[in-house]
Amino acid sequence: MRLQGKNGWRVETGEEFGPWLARQLKLAGKNQAELAEELGLTRAAVSAWITGRSTPRPTVMVDIAKALGTDLGTVHTRTTDTQAGLPLIWYHRPGYRDGGRDLGNAAAFAFDADVQVLARETCQNSLDERLTDNGRPVRVRYTLHELTGKALDDFREAILWNELFPHYSAVSEIAANQKVGRVVDAGVRDMYEKGRLVLLRVDDYNASGLTGDDYADGKFAAVVRRQLESLKSGRDAGGSYGLGKATLWATSALGLVLINSTLSEPHEGRKERRLIGRLELPWREVDGKPYAGPAWLGRPDPDSPGAEVARSWWADEETVARLHLTRENDEPGTSFLIVGAHDVASLDEKSSDVDDEGGDVDEEGTQDTRDIRRMHRRLVKALGRDFWAAMTGGGGQLPRLEVFVRAVRNDGEVVVAEEQVDPSVEQPSRTRALRAYYEGTTVDRLTESGQVVARSVPLNLPLLGGARGTLGTHQAVVLVTDALTDADQKKDGPKNQVHSLRGNRMTVKKATVPNLPIGTNPFQAVLLVGEAAGESALFAQDAEEFLRAAEPPEHDRWGQTEELTLRWSPSAHRRIQALTSEVNSAVKELVVAQPKRGGREGGEALRKALTVKKRPKAKVPTGPVVPELNDLDATIGADGEWQITAEVSIPRGDEVVPMVPVAQLDVRSGGRPKLDWAELVAVEGCEVDDGVLRFTPGARRAKFRGSTDVTSHPVRTTLTRLVVELRAGKGE
User: What pTM does this model have?
Assistant: First the structure.
């Protein structure tokens, strides 16, 4: 709570005095009687403060501050613990009494050390925790931060590196026989040999934060204390396995993540600067004592045996700054700091999907998995590919997500300036399609460039428990629009694909439409299911629940899963297969009739888009005769121009009339728009003179080529039909 003073100063008050004082006594190792004796008061007076029946007088507040070894301001504001409390420690979970060993967190093996996988999982989590009451998007920032020199030394001191080093050394000793140990050993060696450490921080704002108790059920315990537990806020949440958080530790070569959370709901009377650190190492033995694996950085919990267990603490601003966890404002949300970030998957060209030109290499010429420029590019690529829909708004609907990526070195040096991921740049065609749907400008069929066609497709939802029958039919929506030209195709990704998504607006499934006829124009499509098709759509919530159960831990497809089998039936996935068939059929119907783009010899699809208009034969066998267009082949050039090769039949006659080739666009009504020629070239039996064909005497056939001027095209060529005719005289 902040209060405005008379002179404009602000007093910040946090926790109620009683609970705050009780915790300070625990942290200081004192009881109520000992405090009462120091203050010269009765124990009953101290008990009344703690239970909230009374509060101490201002003069007594001064004595309380002295007894707790803190300043008077801390006692008045109560926004942090006193510095007289127990110091920060690393608590390492003791080895199991039965001798069992965990040689790594199994959940982390579900994902690769890949910043693109990290981006997908963390951004999905932030979307799931978005605060919806204010209507604003959740803002997520990815900061790559390379530390060297003094900045690295200061950070290691802040995380109590000297206490951690014996544990890392123990892990290195068993690295040869253990996968996690090899990763950790390589991370430590890289830090010392190259004198650098890469931090990757993920901040979200306008999110719920890690609310709840350190140990009891709640979001904090689900992320920090437990495995395989998912406590998401929304019914359209993406996660359901509790595995996504493991990507944070999987991306750390040191297995170390620090957390700073600003809560949307107070805990212990506070909201800001709730800190905790978690370390994931395999079983190890240090100084003859076995340790199970995980460790936590925090304040000793006075309620734990011997005050050994570390719990979260309310940090001061200086400590937060030293740990590189300072948030930009007091908006709710969480900051995750991945210590020793690396991107092993970037070494695989197939998984990279980006141009690695300019990436750092080591002395042996090997790509550097800790190159922050390269990781920056891969983050932007992945975020734009997977979350373009969540970042798209229109028609009064605000985006659900805003994402920023930056790279810095040692605080002050900007390596890559902050960049906001723009969906219209990363997925231009699909962004156009979704925006048209939001704005209500979709059409029934494609007739012009840039249009978006919408079609409803049914998802027949099964009954729970394996009962026969159908709960109801949910009408999903498929959107189709033309893809970018070949020159810009890379921005859209693979052509002729359907991106499928539900309520959280993350792309779940990407699939190419099969068995398309040869000559089909490139397109991009979007499938909106569940609440993505509209919160008011019939059975939208049921579709959300059904499809969420059909997603594996990677959330990259819909199909048979154990949860789907247990809650519905072993055959429930066939409903999804039926939906896929409906989508593919609808898309084919919408795109197959469009004119072909490209192709040297035209083809049947292109021939249907051409009309050869013939002139009537001359009735008089003698005198001037009029040639007629006999055959026409056409293609669409790289710049969108029509390229034709025409054959002319020349009747017998005393005089052959010169003819002018005329190119027009076929329209339903009104006059046909005329196109200009960029080039007309004679091939045989004729010559071209200022756009006029003059025929060789005695020739019975002639051939010429032509290319239209794209600047005279009123619409994109791929959405038009061409009419070519020969006219006598000047072609008017």
Answer: 0.71
